[in-house]
Design brief:
By secondary structure, the chain is mainly α. The protein has three helices and no strands. The radius of gyration is 28 Å and the shape is elongated.
């Protein structure tokens, strides 16, 4: 059955000549827009990770949660070790 469909598709869909095919400016600008969007998403991701790490170091998250396996725990700040200071 697949062979029959392949044969019918090949007979009804001719292959264009190489000189008839060109990418065009629309595809170029779509590519540029996708590259810019990817860059913005990566930039935002890095900012969020930095905020999360800074908050973890400040002790914003629940300290009673055990650290996940394979991750090193974040050491407490000097202020947290000596509360009388």
């Amino acid at each position: 059955m697949d062979l029959l469909l392949l044969a019918l598709t090949a007979s009804t869909d001719p292959v264009p000549e190489p000189e008839d095919v060109r990418a065009g400016w629309t595809a170029f600008w779509i590519f540029v827009a996708l590259a810019v969007a990817t860059g913005l998403l990566l930039w935002s991701f890095v900012r969020q990770i930095r905020k999360t790490r800074a908050n973890a170091e400040r002790g914003v998250f629940d300290p009673s949660d055990p650290p996940k396996p394979g991750r090193r725990p974040i050491p407490p700040r000097e202020d947290d070790r000596n509360p009388s200071a």
